[in-house]
């Protein structure tokens, strides 16, 4: 019986390795990559790799007609009588004879335009033919680096030795095999049965089908911004078309090759070629380039997208069989290249799917997906590896084996754990890599800041962290310290945090100690306040002393609903200015640290008091989708729906009864993309305090103002750019609105000369309404995505404010790179 099962397994293994394989070249002997190879009248196909080799899996011996399809070359059909495996079939393809058809000259109509109009008129019908299907999916992603330096900012770039002497080599290689169920426009169910990352046997590739849906039958294709399809309804507003010629495919279809040229260089458009089938007007193939600046990704030089479609004479459907996405990018003199290969096969087209086929779980990864051996991959991989890729797997797997060993990890730790005198300033970490724990000293090199209460102040700290890489959880605790030189006081806060469960995103955290706190924690950053104070003698940061103990817990209760609970007991004490130091002498004096009495330097904002506070927050991501991984759950926000959060807060056990209160707060955030006309975003807040007539100013609702004319965020959806920081703080009811529309180049790209800026027009509206005060509002208009070359981290806005009539205006300079320094 044991021999019987051995023979049975051997038979299955032979079936799994039933292959027609070989090499594809042109007539000069040049290897042809990404050739579409499939069995005639089926959707069983594969592709050649970068060296022209292919492997076509078949289920059993027999007679087959194999089709070889490659843009620019004649499609070739070869009859194969495959009885022994592997069956070797090398193929030479001849260049396509593209002919210009005889055309009756009509000065009013470009022949290519007529074909594009027919394709546009027929795209709904052609799209619906592939609207619902099951299919096998394979993806491979590879990134290479060229000319990488030995070190960047003193840190060694290639610690693993994977690059050659010129700084060139593969830095990432991964593969995915899955079964997908799809319904247009965006319903997906994908089960990943195999996932492989070079040098990481515990990782799972993100090369999923959800990121490969580039459908040119739609008006727009998402590449960071919506790119206009060459057969979009409004395509003639963005493209010029030229007839390059026609050829006859293996099914006697006439294929039209159309050159696609942008009308304006700076708009979100493609350029290259689209191939349209005569009569049906279906897409036969696309070969299109995307310039990085056109999709507002300046780091990318150019991206090339190709798609090949296979025809089945039984179903009469042209279905996408092969897609490649290649790019060149560069930064700081380092060149990156990448390529993603996506192969679709074994289509099963459906009229309808059963109810509940599609759920919020759009991708699931099998528990054993990253444990498949080479035998499985050799049988299932539709696109064979190149020698370079094979060597990369072997090399990095060997490196991983060495780097995971206790002997190696201990030897690296012995080297890295040596303490040096400069570590007293720069920081020091002691690691036990084998047991996944570390001790860290932060040093004192964090950017020092200045405020009028503390003067110059420095931060440092100590921490311990223990990780569980198998469950993707961790525990950390430590202490953060802050010393103010003018105040001559050291403050310290101890903290504890643990990630309990990566499936429900559960966290438990606690902290206790003494700190200086802003009345509005997000009012002004330390860097911006430092510059405002030292150079302009404007001390906008208002602080109080807080000694506290806090505990909190967060967990996703059901998909899309997360609950967060917090409890805190604190003692609050007013603080006063301790320095009048300034770098540039100015005649004016510093204002006081009391935000309500700028000239009263000795008047406390409140009396010292104690108070307990507890809150619970529910956050709902409507329509939230997710990816299920063996090591956790990855939530994906559904852009069709808003995110709503609601908080109930209660203050109690105060040293004085008047400090106690109840409050409710709500917030709604919504982003929507409007075709190629940009992105509209809204942030709406509202709230109400109860029994709060005499509460501490620290507990008021504060609004994010700005008196510095400097912006730091990517979008101004949580800030008023001309509002003084604390003029509208309230302990009553409030409504706050921020709305912004970024045209993503839709207008600026069409304006001569200004389109050279490659910038985005942004308009916004901001408003506050509180009791007994006239509503405050701001109107903004600005340019985003400004900068030089590949560094575009600047923004400029003109702001006009109103409150019972015109209030004032100003210019805001957005310096988004400041976020890196915080």
Automatic annotation (TrEMBL):
Pfam families: CarbopepD_reg_2 (PF13715), DUF5686 (PF18939). The keyword Phosphoprotein does not apply. Gene3D superfamilies: Carboxypeptidase-like, regulatory domain (2.60.40.1120). One of its GO terms (molecular function) is carboxypeptidase activity. Keywords: Carboxypeptidase, Hydrolase, Protease. It comes from the Bacteria. This is Carboxypeptidase-like protein. The lineage of its organism: Bacteria, Pseudomonadati, Bacteroidota, Flavobacteriia, Flavobacteriales.
